[in-house]
Amino acid sequence: MEPIILLEDVWLRYRVPEERIRSIKEYAIRRLKGNLAMQQFWALRGVNLEVAKGEVLGIMGRNGAGKTTLMKVIARVLRPTRGRARVWGHVAPLLGLGAGFHDELTGRENIFLASAILGFSRQDVARRFDRIVAFAELEEFIDRPLRTYSSGMRARLGFAVATDVAPEVLILDEVLAVGDAAFQEKCHARINQFRNDGTTVLVVSHQASTIRSLCSRALLLDHGQIAFDGPVPDAIQRYNQIFNAALGLQG
Ligand SMILES: Nc1ncnc2c1ncn2[C@@H]1O[C@H](COP(=O)(O)OP(=O)(O)OP(=O)(O)O)[C@@H](O)[C@H]1O
Ligand SMILES: [Mg+2]
Fold first, then answer.
1. Ligand 1: centre distance to CA 97 (Å)
2. pTM of this prediction?
3. Is the CB of 61 under 6 A from ligand 1?
4. By the number of CB atoms within 10 A of the CB, which of 101, 105, 197, 225 ranks highest?
C-alpha cells in the first residue's frame, strides 16, 4: 500500500519565554538586547509514521502527550524542527472545537468561511449549503452568531462542513466527544463510508470506545514519542497501563 502520510524522524520544539513578558515593546527590547531567556520544549521526539490511503487511525495518549502537535504537523500548520513530514493530498483538519470559525459570524457565514479555507469556491458551497446544514441539523440556528452555539453545535457544524465532500485526509482532534449519541452515530456512519471511498481519517480521542468502534489501528503517544503502534486492543491495553503507572497502581 502506498502511504498518504509519511513522517520520518519528526522532532518538534516549542519555545516559550522563561519569564512573563508584559508587552510587545518589552519583548522587542529584550530580543534586541539578547536577554530573552527562552525555554525549549520538545513536544515531538523522533516520530516515525506511515499511514496508508483509506486507513482509519486512532491516536491516544495522556494530556500533553503531543497528539494535537502531531496533528498540526500533518495538517501543515506546524513545520517539524527536525525530520521530514510528507502528506500527499488535501487535509481537512478539525483541530478542536471551532478551529477556523469566527464567533461573531453566523453559522451561515462560517460555513462559507471554513469552506473557503478548505479550498472550495463560493458557488460550490452555495450549491451544497442546504445539505451541510441538514447534516448538522442546525436549520433553526444557522443565522445566529456562532458565539450562541453550544459546543456540540459547533462540533456538528465543523464536522458537516469538513466532510460534506470527502477529503483525502480528515483529522478529528477531540471533535466527536462533544456530540450527542445520535450525532456520534451519524459521524461514525460517515467515517465508515469514507473508509470504503479511500479517505484517510485520523481520530484523536480519549474514549477507548470511539477508537475501538472506528479504527483498525491505533497509536499511543507518550511524552512526544510513539509508545505503541498497532492493533487497537493492544493500544488500549498499553494506554491503561500508562494510566495505572501514573496512578501508582503498577510499575
Ligand atoms: N504553542 C505552544 N507553545 C508551547 N508549548 C506548547 C504549545 N502547544 C503545546 N505545547 C506543549 O506541548 C506538549 C504537547 O501538547 P499537545 O497539545 O500536543 O498535547 P495533546 O496530546 O494534544 O494533549 P490534550 O490531550 O490535552 O489535548 C504539552 O506539554 C504542551 O504544554
Ligand atoms: Mg490535544
1. 16
2. 0.90
3. yes
4. 101
